[in-house]
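Technical appendix A lists one of the benchmark inputs used to test multi-chain prediction within the project. The record comprises two sequence entries:
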Amino acid sequence: MVAAEPAASPDPARERFERCFREHYADVLAFALRRLADRGAAEDVAAETFAVAWRRRAQLPVEARPWLFGVARRVLTNQRRSTRRRWHLEQRLASESGAAIPASDPGEALERRSSFAAAFRQLREGEREVLSLIAWEGLTPRQAAAVLGCSYAAFRVRFHRARRKLEKQIAAAGHSPGSGQAAAPIPSEEAR
Amino acid sequence: MRAEYTENDALTQMRAADPAPVEELRRQLGEAELQEAMTAALAAAATPAPRPRSFPSRRRRLALLGGVACLAAITLTLALIALPGGGGQPQFAAAAVEVAEANPRLLVTAPGWKVTRADQFEADQGEVVFGAGDHYLGVTWYPARFYERYLEDRATVGPQEHSTLLGLGATTVHYGRQIYATILEPEGSVFVELRGQVGDRAGYDEVIDSLRRVGVDEWLAAMPASVVKPEDREEAVGAALRGVPLPPGFEAGELEGAGDAVRDQYQFAVEVSGAVACGWVESWIAAKRSGDAAAMQTAVEAMATWPEWPLLQGAEMRRGWAMNVKQAANRIAHDRLNYGPAGISVEADGTAYAFGPQWSLALGCDPHWRMPDDPNAPPSNRPPSGRG
C-alpha cells in the first residue's frame, strides 16, 4: 500500500480490504461515473466508498460488490445534499455562461446526442436506477433489491415497469425493438 | 422466474450505451492508478467524520496526493540480489539464496504460464504472480505463525473444501467471480496461499495441480526476464543517462553499483530517473535558498527535458512514474514546489500519520518525515519548507 508503512505483521482484515479494493475499485468507479459526469467527482465518490469499506474492513461482506454499490449510493446522496446549494449556484452561472452542468443520476453520462440517451432520460431517476443496476452494474434482481433497500418482489415490479417504459420511449423515438437479436436472460441469481 | 427477466432490445441497447464499461476501466487502471486511488481512500478514511465541507477539503488533500501514485514503486523492497559469476550464469548472492531457500519455490508448469511479477519478497513473506493471458495465479508465502489466523479469516469467505496439494493439507475457498484461494499447511517457517482467476474451477485446479517444487537456482532463474541483471547494469545506466542533463555532483557510478540489484525495467527506470530528478530539485532548492537565480533556471531547464529521457518513454511509463517527474518539473518551473504532506498512512489500529514532503516522496528522494496526522493542526505544526 502506498500510503501505509509496511505492516509489522500480516493483518487478514487489511489484506481482505486490499483485495476487495483491487477487485472492485473499477466496479465502484464505473458506478459513480455512470451517475456523475465528472471523473474527478466520481473518483471522490469511489474514495469515500472505500473509506467506509476500510473502516468496516473487519466486517466486509463476502459478496462485497452489491454492498459497495449500496455504500456508493449513500455517498452520492450525501454529496448531492451537501452540495445542493453550490449546485444551484453553478446552475445559475452555467445558464448565464452556457457551460455544461455536472449531472448526478444514472445515465447522465450518456452521450447526450444519442437517441437512446434521449429515450432513457425520459424515465424518472428511480426508474433509471433500477435498470442501471441490472444492465450496467450487472447485478441480479435480488442483489439490486438489496442495494436499493427494497424487497425482491417490490424490485420486480419496479423493474418491469421501468423496462416497459423504456421500451415505449425507444419505440417513440423510432427505435422499435429489432427482430434479429437473440433473446438472452439477464444474469440469474445463480450466475453471481 | 428467469423467464420474467428475459433480455430484450431495450436492455441490449442500454448495455451497448454503457457510459462507463467496467472492463475498459479495468484496462485503464494500472497499478499506479490503483495505488493512488487506494491512497486517496485511506486518506479519506483518516479524515474525521464527514462534514458538510468535506468534499472541497478532501479535494485539496487529494491534490497533495497527486504525485504519490508511483511511490509504491519506490517503497517496494528489492526483489533479488545477484552477483555476476565467473561464467555465463549469474551466481546468486547469499541474500537471494536465503530468500529462495526459505520459501517454497513453487513454479506453475502448465503450458503458457510464466512469472509476471516478482518485485517484492523477503525470506518469510513474499509473492510471485504467474500469468497466462487474462488468467493469473498468485503464490504468496507468509510466516507459519500466522497460518491459523489466515485460515480463520478465510473461513468467513464461504464454505471450505479440504484436499491435498504438494503433499500438504489444502483448504480452498471461493471468492466469487471465478476467484479461488487455497491455503496450504505450513512447511518449515512459512505457509503458502494460492489465489487466482483461471476461468473456472476446473481451470484453477488444473493450474494449481501443475505447481512444482524446484531448486534454488531454477526458481531464481525463473524470475521475469525483464530485469536488469548486475552484469548489464553499468551499460544499462549509461544508456539510460545518455543525453540526460545531470545535476551538479551527480555520480552515475553510485547508481551503477547500487546494491548489485536485480530489478525489473520499471523499477530500474524509477531508480535512475528518480535519482536525476531528485538531484535537480535539490539543486533548485539550494539555489533558491542562496538566491542564485541562474542556478534555479538551469535546474528548471534541465528538468524540462524529461520527455526526452530514455527511461521515461513508453505508454506505461508516461501514465505512471513519469507523471511524478513531470509534476516536479512543472512545480519548480512555477516556484510551486510542495513541501506539505504527501499522504496519510493508516495503521491497523486506525492511527493515522502524515508523511512528506510531497515533492521528495513523489520522487523517492531521502530523507522523509512522518508525524501523527491531525487535520486540525495549524500549518505551523507542519515541518518547515525545505526540510527533507
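The CA atoms of residues 165 and 209 of chain B lie 7 Å apart. The longest strand of chain B covers residues 135-143. Comparable benchmark entries are summarised in Table A2.
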